[in-house]
Design a protein that fits this description.
The complex is a heterodimer. Chain A has helices at 54-62, 84-89, 107-116, 133-144, 160-173, 190-201, 216-222, 240-245, 247-255, and strands at residues 16-25, 28-38, 43-47, 69-74, 77-78, 92-94, 178-182, 208-212, 225-230, 233-238. Chain A is of the alpha/beta class. Chain A starts with 15 loop residues before the first strand and ends with a helix. Chain B has helices at residues 2-21, 24-50, 58-75, 80-102, 107-127, 154-175, 179-189, 191-195, 201-227, 237-250, 255-275, 279-293, 297-317; strands spanning 145-146, 149-150. In chain B, 75% of the residues lie in helices and 1% in strands. In chain B, strand 1 and strand 2 form a beta hairpin. Chain B is built from 13 helices and two strands. By secondary structure, chain B is an all-alpha fold. Classes of the chains: A alpha/beta, B mainly alpha. Chain A binds chain B through residues 62, 64, 83-85, 88-89, 93-94, 96, 100-105, 109, 112-114, 116-118, 121-128, 170, 174, and chain B through 174-175, 177-180, 182-183, 185-186, 189-190, 192-201, 204, 207. Bound molecules: adenosine-5'-triphosphate and magnesium ion. Magnesium ion (MG) binds at residues 54-55, 97 of chain A. Chain B: It is found in: Cell membrane.
């Protein structure tokens, strides 16, 4: 049993540090006093039953939702009041539970936008030329997530699995320091899951990754540590083995909403 | 692709030679206004087609450019080029201010705010005599003169409008593939997603609105030269709505649609008025028919006809295709 208290801040630059973060929706407390600290380069999984507040926690980290209480630090910076686009520019990237891509733009343009989003002159009035480094990067990214063949297809025409691949490519496009993945394996075929796991294991070692995952195979292979969320609260934290053995966690999963 | 290009070249040829074979009435009274209304409507296509922002204030912005030009050249007696710079600056700055006020809302609320802003300017123009000239407006506005020719002489003005129309059209098409244009299309589909890629969505909306103000201003200058005067009537509610009608008839999502819609609009207002007193009804019915039967506007219809035609043509020509057609 690993106490949550052990991970209270030692304000040295953690990649991500949540201090007493809560988020309410009217009467519902979706996230309740969460303390969380990620070391740079750490791979952490968040698991928990439906409605546990996992996605809400992500939204609070990116700034899409303001926390009701608490502080969020990103490599030592207090980002609690920063809007999403500024947090992203600091080196944060995310994917969504249902893939969010721009359906009426091509795969290449989706990736290109993601690359330009963290560069200056992102609203340039000059069309990219074939020899621009960003164009080369688009192809490299497409290759990396297995979409080389679909570069000129409209994103809206891709299959669900391919949209997940594209979104992952978009998240990697900014070369983030912290990558947030919301159920990246959901809706994927077993083969696609395996590819995903391979890709995640091959990520640059200095990249910090926080992933929400229902699929324990993926979660436990990729993550060194696991945090369990239940009704907005962190109920356990530890290595995959510790979590698998944890009786509270077993109770939540067996007797919970599942 | 090749055929589309051929068609475009043919169209361009016809437009370029139009004053040589078209009647003076069609050149001066139909196509020329269609071109400058088209430019104003194009500023809306840019906002709505790419950015999903349906604004009713584009005619107001165009009108402000006209007022700026008139005030500087007539009231203050400055040369024409100062009038042009001032007109464009006024339209662009007004768009910046409008943008800052309007961009936090979207959809129908955005539309309502822009129409409210338009009505504020209308009321101001009606009441203020020192700058706007009250409800008479500013009269006797003259277009620039170059080498002893006024730019509004029929053929010259047609070519001027055509050149500017083609340039602005080309610019808007080019914009689609730039980071600015791509991000604009992206925020139309999912502003939240764009913000989590690092883009400041509100800023981008303001920038797009400002740019559209500049475009509308160009159209406004041509309009005021053509009319030789500007008054609050030019920017009343009906005129604001006309621009939306033009863009929707042509197809909001297409840059071509702005000009096609403007041509149809000018034709209908010119000819329907000789058949019936109720040309507003005719416009209204056309508008309704388009919205009901082809939300993509005339451009959508034209596009479908063209691909149909091309398919039949190809089928006919199939045996002889290797002849290098
Ligand atoms: N924008 C919102 N407004 C109101 N309630 C919300 C909102 N977003 C989430 N909630 C509620 O907060 C709770 C937590 O939702 P959240 O989506 O964070 O759960 P989750 O752990 O991601 O669940 P799942 O595994 O189903 O994705 C749920 O009860 C949900 O209904
Ligand atoms: Mg979720």
């Amino acid at each position: 049993m690993v106490a949550v208290e052990a991970h209270r801040p030692q304000t040295a630059a953690h990649a991500l540090e949540l201090q007493g973060v809560s988020r309410r929706f009217g009467g519902l407390v979706a996230v309740r006093d969460v303390w969380l600290a990620l070391e740079p380069g750490e791979r952490r999984a968040i698991i928990g039953p439906n409605g546990a507040g996992k996605t809400t926690l992500f939204n609070v980290i990116t700034g899409e939702l303001r926390p009701t209480t608490g502080t969020i630090r990103f490599f030592g910076h207090d980002v609690t009041r920063l809007p999403p686009h500024q947090r992203i520019r600091l080196g944060l990237a995310r994917t969504y539970q249902t893939p969010l891509v721009f359906p009426r733009l091509s795969v290449a343009d989706n990736l290109y936008l993601a690359i330009r989003g963290v560069q200056p002159w992102r609203l340039s009035l000059r069309r990219p030329r074939a020899e621009d480094p960003e164009r080369v990067e688009v192809e490299r990214l497409a290759e990396r997530v297995g979409l080389r063949h679909a570069l000129h297809a409209l994103a809206g025409a891709l299959s669900h699995g391919e949209q997940r691949q594209l979104e992952l490519g978009m998240a990697l496009a900014s070369r983030p320091k912290l990558l947030l993945l919301d159920e990246p394996a959901a809706g994927l075929s077993p083969g696609e899951r395996e590819q995903l796991t391979t890709l995640l294991l091959a990520l640059e070692p200095e990249m910090t990754v926080l992933l929400i995952e229902h699929d324990m195979d993926v979660a436990f292979q990729v993550a060194q540590r696991v945090t369990v969320l239940h009704e907005g609260r962190v109920i356990a934290e530890g290595t995959p083995d510790e979590i698998a053995m944890n009786s509270t966690v077993q109770q939540v999963y067996l007797g919970g909403t599942q | 692709m090749r055929k589309t290009r051929l068609l475009a070249a043919l169209l361009l040829f016809l437009l370029l030679t139009f004053p040589l074979w078209g009647s003076a009435y069609f050149v001066g009274r139909i196509f020329t206004p269609a071109l400058f209304f088209g430019i104003i409507a194009l500023s809306l296509s840019l906002l709505a087609g790419y950015g999903g922002m349906v604004s009713l204030a584009q005619m107001t912005l165009a009108g402000l450019a006209g007022y700026g030009y008139g005030y500087l050249t007539i009231t203050l007696g400055q040369p024409w080029w100062i009038g042009i710079l001032a007109g464009l600056a006024v339209a662009t700055l007004a768009a910046l201010v409008f943008g800052l006020i309007a961009v936090r809302s979207t959809g129908i609320y955005f539309l309502m705010i822009t129409v409210a802003l338009g009505m504020v300017v209308y009321a101001l123009a009606n009441q203020n005599r020192s700058i706007f000239g009250g409800h008479t407006g500013i009269l006797g506005i003259r277009a620039p003169e170059l080498f002893g020719h006024s730019l509004v002489e029929r053929t010259i003005f047609y070519y001027l409008c055509l050149a500017i129309g083609l340039t602005t059209y080309g610019f808007v098409r080019y914009l689609a593939g730039t980071p600015f244009g791509l991000a604009l299309q992206a925020l139309r589909d999912d502003p939240r997603r764009l913000s989590t890629l690092g883009y400041n969505v509100a800023l981008h909306r303001v920038a797009a609105f400002t740019l559209s103000g500049f475009l509308a201003g160009i159209g406004g200058l041509l309009l005021v030269w053509y009319n030789g005067a500007i008054s609050p009537t030019t920017i009343d509610l009906t005129r604001l709505i006309n621009i939306l009608v033009i863009a929707v008839i042509g197809g909001l999502a297409y840059a071509e649609g702005a000009f096609l819609g403007a041509l149809v609009f000018v034709l209908v207002t010119n000819f329907a008025s000789s058949f019936t007193q109720r040309f507003n009804t005719v416009i209204g019915l056309t508008f309704l028919a388009i919205v009901l039967f082809s939300p993509e506007g005339l451009s959508g219809i034209a596009l479908r006809l063209w691909s149909l035609l091309r398919r039949t043509l190809l089928a006919r020509l199939a045996p002889s295709r290797h002849t290098g057609l």
